[in-house]
Amino acid sequence: MAELPSHIDGYGDVRPFASAFANLEAVRRTASRIRSVPPGQQKVLPDLAAAIDASGLRNGGTISFHHHLRNGDGVLNAVMEAIASRGLRDLRVAASALFPVHAPLVQHIEAGIVSRICASTIYGPVAHSVMAARLAAPALMYTHGGRARCLESGELHIDVAFVGAPTADTYGNVSGVNGRAACGPLGYAIADVQCADCVIAVTDNLVPYPAFPSDITQDYVDFVVPVPSIGDPTQIVSGTTRPTSDPDALRIASLATRVIESSGLLVDGFSFQAGAGGASLAASAYLKQIMMTRRVQGSFASGGITGSIVEMLDAGLFRALFDVQCLDLAAVDSYRRNEAHQAMSASMYANPHNRGCVANQLDAVILGAAEIDCDFNVNVTTAADGSILGGSGGHADIAAGAKLAIITTRLTAGKFPKIVERVGTVTTPGETVDALVTEEGVAVNPRRSDLADRLRAGGIGVRPIGELLERSVQIAGESGSTSLSRPDGPVVAVVEYRDGTVIDVVRSRTA
Amino acid sequence: MAELPSHIDGYGDVRPFASAFANLEAVRRTASRIRSVPPGQQKVLPDLAAAIDASGLRNGGTISFHHHLRNGDGVLNAVMEAIASRGLRDLRVAASALFPVHAPLVQHIEAGIVSRICASTIYGPVAHSVMAARLAAPALMYTHGGRARCLESGELHIDVAFVGAPTADTYGNVSGVNGRAACGPLGYAIADVQCADCVIAVTDNLVPYPAFPSDITQDYVDFVVPVPSIGDPTQIVSGTTRPTSDPDALRIASLATRVIESSGLLVDGFSFQAGAGGASLAASAYLKQIMMTRRVQGSFASGGITGSIVEMLDAGLFRALFDVQCLDLAAVDSYRRNEAHQAMSASMYANPHNRGCVANQLDAVILGAAEIDCDFNVNVTTAADGSILGGSGGHADIAAGAKLAIITTRLTAGKFPKIVERVGTVTTPGETVDALVTEEGVAVNPRRSDLADRLRAGGIGVRPIGELLERSVQIAGESGSTSLSRPDGPVVAVVEYRDGTVIDVVRSRTA
């Protein structure tokens, strides 16, 4: 691990990451504030400005958003515009994730309307603002499970949570499956509505009471605001969720699937999660074939759910899905029509501080990497040049929970090696990673000699990760350094592990 | 209202009831304790004794139960037997309701194993123990919404919650719709599992992970215990839920329906709840005919749900049901097969201290009474002889929430008048009651002259409640006193209104 400062201005004292399962003591869920709604009181307000006024939001407050519409989200920008029009300043934006579509936040940051950012992943222009140290405090980057934990523990207190509601009724029952912008379960918003002082549902499909089925129920919602559009559902498939036809990616996917096959886990009751990257989607397709051939009936698949996982459910290869967020419209349709396609909250998904998250029940997961190092630490937070390119999302969560966490990656990305001596930023600690699969072979974490034995027995060559590192550097055509030197400027982002300890920081380059 | 003591031993200082909507300020939901479950840790324990040991329950602790299996419940007795075998003492039993089947509690009370009782309703032998002052402190009687409020506020802290699970998987996902003892939604257990320090699911249908659909999810459950039987589902139809063929009851039901019809509320969007008494069931049948004839499409019906309400849903007379508890097996079946039959928690149902409960959205409700007085105060807590015969359940909750709260009752029960000058115990304050319907006519609360006008316009004679009182006394053949004198012994039960104020007490008779 990189050396961490003991204190970070704008963050506070640093509780350093110790190990993946060090902080699993009993915890307390925070108290939350509830404004009672008596009979006869209406919840529908005419517009966002009225709702912001009614919420009691003040300068310096914290507002939250969820990213189920991903790069099609129209709620955050509309809310921020209304907030700007109310003259509020110095706000903290606690989003589950930020996308390129949220570029207008940059202007709000420049104008001092937004001074702090927390998110599990940050893609696009806002990441540039963070890197340029345009915020009053370092950005705070969580895992998806860690964000739920942080809300439930009270470490992150939300004054006003905004819920993008594909359908809402006049008393605040919210459905993600009906409406023009249907996006499926609203798993990332659940901890927000449970813990925030005030919850505002923003909808472009206001319907008579009661709306059902409800992903969020009326007892958690203070106000309902109709708007012309909450966003563009066709952009739910965006960012990392496109399939691949690249031969290397397909080779990696096939090899990752063989690793699962040889691991001994692919028996009845098998459970699985794949990221939404191209190799993961391809691996799901291979896995489907193997499970059909071997007549394995899995128990469940989880995660952000894609159409490829839905196909496996529909083929009877899993009995159920646990879905925190649909990653394409085929998944949205499945959630609507199939009872076996279950919603889960981010806390149920991946929070280490509850009575047992779904991640704990996973057998095998396939995850990507921007970089991985000789200790199997994985970076999905920063690019080779040190700039923020995403963040953990559920990466560190499911690596920790699963019996077999497989990282798939090409050896290089352009001129940069992806197997490095030391990752630019640690997102997921190596102790939770079991195997690395590249286009030139597989490496197994030395902690898992049992796995290496199984793979060899399955005819899979297992190479020392050092060899793959060498090949990575060789192909990238670099020598002497396996990655760029770490930036040494001020801390611009703090990377919290799922248990709330600091696992790494992101620094800007000094000018 | 009766005069209340300012302090009650074993209860504390009394915050006296002021008015139905006096305490609707912002509140805080309590913090709760969570034991983190790491990957690999199992939840299934061999038996109840092992689970009680694992829970950390100590002498003096509080344990909770829910009553979805009603008089068929086998969980409470089995748990108490295991607790007795562990040598624990001085426990508080916080049940959502107690039934005759829980008679073995009497021995546990006598033995000092149970020293305190809280419940929304208490039927049967345990009520006799309460009346006989066999407990170390007065019993605490809530409304259903008030119980959820009390749990969420932390006023009632549960050490260990026991969930009777018709189906549970090995990691604690609980379903009420599948299994031998399927009972439908588990609405009364939700606040318990959210607020208790430890949650134990007790099941006679342990299935592989994951069970779905889930009424309670794994992140709320610490342990799962398989037992031979959680109870007898045929006894769900019990107590107050039998239909009637009595001519007086049918006349009352018909008249109550005409009151609704004349109230102006019976238009599209109409919402409705009926108790489970015979007159209520009959009224539902009449209402069904009127709604079909007038082609009214209601929005929802709520409550404990019966087959008669399911028939109205199936006939298209309501778009949805909100169900906290199925009151017969037809309702269980409907919940299983019909998405429009939605579950709700007790808090969502009736808690005055959340962001808007379902009770707030009700148009008309039909409720029973043991007694009603000239101020329209209703007693469903004690019999004419002063002994406990039930308790509020949702009575006071929905009377407060609904636009039109109708009390239906015969004028007499045997030799006792049911219309009295002053009820033996105030369960539901008169300010929340709009009309009284008896076999000899209708009285309207003077606060609701608008309603009286509408009823007269609809051809319904409206009589002063004093006239009905006179008839009641006349028929009962008594004079001089309209009810027995109130017992004047020590307080044996404290009746809390839904907001946590004390609305009345139950006293034993001095020897």
Would you give an account of this structure?
Chain A is an alpha/beta fold and 511 residues long. Chain A folds into two domains: 39-235, Glutaconate Coenzyme A-transferase (3-Layer(aba) Sandwich); 239-486, Glutaconate Coenzyme A-transferase, CATH 3.40.1080. In chain A, 26% of the residues lie in helices and 24% in strands. Chain A is built from 14 helices and 31 strands. The first copy, chain A, has a nine-stranded mixed sheet, covered by helices on one side. In chain A, strands 20-19-18-17-21-24-28-29 form an eight-stranded mixed sheet, with helices on both faces. Chain A has a three-stranded mixed sheet with strand order 13-12-15, with no helix packed on it. In chain A, a hairpin with a 2-residue loop joins strand 28 and strand 29. The first copy, chain A, is globular, with a radius of gyration of 22 Å. The model of chain A has no long low-confidence stretch (mean pLDDT 94). Chains A and B meet through strand 3, strand 4 and strand 19 of A and strand 3, strand 4 and strand 19 of B. Strand 4 of chain A pairs antiparallel with strand 3 of chain B, so a sheet runs across the interface.
Rg of Cα set of chain A: 22 Å
Number of domains of chain A: 2
Oligomer: homodimer
Q: Mean of residue pLDDT of chain A?
A: 94
Number of helices of chain A: 14
**Helical proportion of chain A?**
25-40%
Please give the CATH architecture of the largest domain in chain A: 3-Layer(aba) Sandwich
Low-confidence stretches of chain A: none
| CATH topology value of the largest domain in chain A | Glutaconate Coenzyme A-transferase
The outline of chain A comes out as globular
Instruction: Identify the CATH class of the largest domain in chain A.
Output: Alpha Beta
